[in-house]
Amino acid sequence: MGSSLQTHRSDLLGLVLACFFAVCGLLSYGLLLGLFPDAGGPAWTVALAAAFAVPVVFMVLSHWVLGVYLLAAVLPFESMLTFGSYGSAIKGIGLLMFCGLGLRLLRDQELFDRLRLSLQRPLLLCAGALAGWSMLSVLWAGERVPALVKTGTFVSMLALMVAIGLLERRQLVVMWAVIAAGTLLSVPFGYVMFGAPGEEAGRFSSGGDPNDYANLLVVVFFVACYGLLRRSRVAAYALAFAVVIGVLISQSRTGLIALGATPLLILFLPRLMTRIAGRTLVMYSLAIAVFAGMIFLTPSTGELVSERFSTISQYESEDTWAGRWSLWQGAGRLIADNPILGVGSGNFPYEAAAYSAQAAHLESLREGAAVAHNVFLSVASELGAVGLALFLGILFFAFKGALRLARYRSALGVGLFLGLLAFTIAGQTLSWEYEKVGYFLYGSVLSLLLHQTTQSKPKSGYGDHR
Q: Does this model's pTM top 0.70?
């Protein structure tokens, strides 16, 4: 117990030090540009990056858990840390983290045994099989480069899931606390950097796609508020306020639906609903109050947001779906022509143009721009029935594991179950089969299940659902 607590404190200290070096680097660079405007060339940038990155590299290599925390911290800012078509700071952090994990496995028998147990879990086996099937699909893919790129993404997400699955419970709680803190900060940060929504500023986000950003906020909100912050009302309400603001001004209709519908689906699990009913009513009341306050305090923004969300009721209008009907119909025809194998990982944009006018239009604007806008259609069209079965297997075992955790009175298990629901709702209009937050959820469920196997079976929770 003492050793575990000492490790936990070491993790937190390392995270604080890494953030300190990163912030010092950014402040130093900003000060340099302020004092010497002509000094912002590549040489100065490389010198500062090296000066402040080297300690972070050393700490991550010596303590791999710190790499997981850093990945969690930058998750809401991922698009701002991307350079060119394939480079990103997140990939660099991930590579360092995996190297540190590999070094740790060589000298930590307990961690190695935990890895061996995780490799026997059907949740991880399905994720590994999906990555392997994506790799095989390169053989019949029309465009090999996109297939290799997406396969590399699947393999990276699998490795991330494995790493998160090896975390101890305390470390897992810290990881989600870091994600929640980053999510909370991303809303004012995005407002300062990109401004409120409007004709010039466009829809609000922290730098990336507004729909992806809004639904990330929703997933993190449910995991944190229902899984971590049950005893900290101030922190829960602060996060809820930021998330509601972020979702509203992002104008993401999918984000708003996921935020409102996720707790309602718990009605099918009445005994679980009784545990979250009070907090859910408070959160709904807060959302309504925030929306009303936005209309009253900033009428122009409130009117813009109201007009956007009012289109949800106009489901028969093509404008409401922004071309998604055409993409979904095209994906259906593409699946019918390639039912078993699919067209190859990452090849939907290149094949869908022949089946969908909207896809052809998007491809004429930018190569690779067309996406299925539905996670199940995306997987089925690119990886066929085999890939779809494997992806459904991941969701099935993730939900099964989270519900099992919730039944045994695991607060984080309840949060993860709600997060998975929000993730699945978002996937109805987003191609999220390789979105990082999904693998954070899968890995967290895996970690808690492994932790549960090492503990004695607790008393029965709220009961079975029959």
A: yes
